[in-house]
Recover the amino acids of this structure.
C-alpha cells in the first residue's frame, strides 16, 4: 500500500508604498501579499522544503540521507543508493501590516516545493522539481496631500494593484567522488506572469482618470553549481562545509502596456504597446555553509548568502520600476545569515514515539534586494519545527513554523509582522532492487 501511495505521489509531483494616508486591502487571490512586492519581480520566495525552513533555511552544507535537501545539488548524493525520495509541501502566510496608526492583515495558502530525487548510476543521482521563485501581490490606495496640487486640480486619489508569480523549474544531478566529497549542478528555468495596474482619479471636472496596466510574461534560464565536503573528526562527530553558486540570468519575455485616460475631459487617450524585455537580468548568488553532525542525532548548520541586484537594471525598466510610487525603489545588495539545528532523541526507540520525532529550531537575518527611498528593508525571524515519522523507512510529515518581522515604521515604511506555517510530506522508498527467492 505504501509503495502504491509513493508511486502515485511521484507521478503527481512530476506532472506599496506612497506618502500620505494609505489603506491596504486583503485578498486570497494573491500568491503572497506585501506592499513591497510592487518593485521588480516581487517578493523573492524562500527556497527549500519544510525540512530546510524549520531550521532557519539552512542547507548549503547539510547532508542527511533521510531528507531531500534541494538547496545544494551536491547534497542529493547523501542518500541510500537504491532510494527514491519525494518531497512536497504547502505553506500558509499570516501577516499584520502597520504604518503609523493604520493596521491591516492578510493570510493566504499556496503550494510550496515539489521535488523528486532518484539514483542514476553508481554514485550519480538526479533531482527534478518546481518551486515558487517570486510573488507579486499588493493593493493600496492614497490621496494627494500637496495643497498646491489640490488647488490646481482638485482632490486626486491613487490606487495600485498587482498580482502574479514566477516559478522555478529545475533539474539537477550530483556525484559523490569519494565518501567525503561531492559535486552537483542544476539547470533552472524561471517563468511566469505578473500584472501591475495603477489608477489616478480626479474629482474635479475637466480631467481624465488615468489607468496604466502592465502585463508581463517573463522567462529566464540560469543554473546552479554546488560542492560539499564532510570530514570525520572521530567515530561520531563530522564537520562539513558546502558552497553554491547561482548564475545570473538574462530575463526575457514581453511587457504589454496599456494606457487608458477617460472621464470628464472632452477627449480620450487610449494607447497600447507590446515591448520585448531587454537588458534586465536576475542576479547571481554565492552561498557558503558549515555543518556539524554528531552521531546522526544532532545536526547544526550555518549559512551565509550574498547576491548583488544593483546591476539588474530593474530600477528603470518598464513594468519593473513603479512610476506611481512616490517613494522611489532601487536595487540593492541582498544578503542573509541563517542558523539551524535538529535533534532526534532515539530514532530506533520502539516504545516511545516522541523519541523518534526529529525536533528543529533556527533563526535568520535577511536584507532584501531593494531599497525604499534609500533605506534597506530587512527581516529577522525564528523558526521551530519537527518531523513526525510515518510508516517505515524515513517517511514522515514535517512541520515548520516561522515567526518574524520585516521592515520598520521608521522613515514612512511599512512594518510586517508575520507567522508562516509550512507542512511537508517526505516520502522514501527502496526501488531498483531485484528480489531473490530460495
Amino acid at each position: 500500500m505504501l509503495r502504491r501511495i509513493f508511486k502515485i505521489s511521484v507521478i503527481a509531483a512530476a506532472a506599496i508604498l506612497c506618502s500620505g494616508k494609505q489603506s491596504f486591502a486583503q485578498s486570497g487571490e494573491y500568491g503572497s501579499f506585501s506592499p513591497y512586492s510592487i518593485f521588480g519581480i516581487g517578493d523573492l520566495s524562500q527556497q527549500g522544503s519544510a525540512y530546510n525552513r524549520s531550521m532557519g533555511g539552512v542547507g548549503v552544507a547539510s547532508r542527511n540521507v533521510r531528507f531531500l535537501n534541494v538547496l545544494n545539488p551536491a547534497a542529493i548524493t547523501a542518500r541510500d543508493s537504491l532510494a527514491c525520495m519525494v518531497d512536497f509541501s504547502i505553506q500558509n502566510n499570516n501577516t499584520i501590516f502597520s504604518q503609523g496608526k493604520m493596521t491591516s492583515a492578510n493570510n493566504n495558502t499556496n503550494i510550496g516545493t515539489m521535488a523528486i530525487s532518484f539514483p542514476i548510476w553508481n554514485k550519480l543521482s538526479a533531482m527534478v522539481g518546481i518551486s515558487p521563485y517570486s510573488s507579486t501581490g499588493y493593493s493600496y490606495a492614497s490621496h494627494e496631500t500637496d495643497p498646491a496640487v489640490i488647488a490646481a486640480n482638485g482632490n486626486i486619489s491613487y490606487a495600485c494593484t498587482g498580482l502574479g508569480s514566477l516559478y522555478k523549474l529545475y533539474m539537477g544531478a550530483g556525484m559523490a567522488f569519494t565518501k567525503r566529497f561531492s559535486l552537483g549542478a542544476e539547470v533552472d528555468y524561471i517563468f511566469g506572469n505578473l500584472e501591475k495596474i495603477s489608477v489616478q482619479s480626479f474629482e474635479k471636472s475637466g480631467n481624465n482618470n488615468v489607468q496604466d496596466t502592465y502585463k508581463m510574461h517573463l522567462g529566464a534560464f540560469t543554473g546552479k553549481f554546488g560542492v560539499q565536503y564532510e570530514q570525520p573528526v572521530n567515530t561520531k562527530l563530522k564537520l562539513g562545509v558546502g558552497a553554491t553558486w547561482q548564475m545570473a540570468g538574462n530575463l526575457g519575455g514581453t511587457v504589454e502596456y496599456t494606457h487608458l485616460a477617460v472621464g470628464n475631459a472632452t477627449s480620450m487617450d487610449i494607447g497600447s504597446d507590446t515591448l520585448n524585455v531587454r537588458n534586465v537580468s536576475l542576479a547571481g548568488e554565492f552561498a557558503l555553509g558549515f555543518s556539524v553532525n554528531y552521531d546522526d542525532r544532532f545536526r547544526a548548520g550555518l549559512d551565509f548568502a550574498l547576491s548583488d541586484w544593483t546591476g539588474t537594471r530593474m530600477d528603470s525598466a518598464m513594468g519593473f520600476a513603479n512610476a506611481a510610487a512616490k517613494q522611489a525603489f532601487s536595487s540593492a545588495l541582498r544578503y542573509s545569515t541563517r542558523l539551524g539545528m535538529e535533534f532526534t532523541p532515539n530514532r530506533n526507540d520502539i516504545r516511545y514515539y516522541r523519541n523518534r520525532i526529529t525536533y528543529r529550531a533556527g533563526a535568520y537575518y535577511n536584507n532584501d534586494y531593494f531599497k525604499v527611498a534609500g533605506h534597506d528593508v530587512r527581516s529577522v525571524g525564528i523558526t521551530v519545527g519537527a518531523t513526525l515519522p510515518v510508516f517505515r523507512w524515513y517517511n514522515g510529515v514535517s512541520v515548520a513554523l516561522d515567526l518574524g518581522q520585516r521592515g520598520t515604521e521608521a522613515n514612512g515604511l511599512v512594518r510586517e509582522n508575520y507567522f508562516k506555517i509550512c507542512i511537508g510530506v517526505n516520502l522514501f522508498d527502496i526501488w531498483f532492487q531485484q528480489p531473490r527467492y530460495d
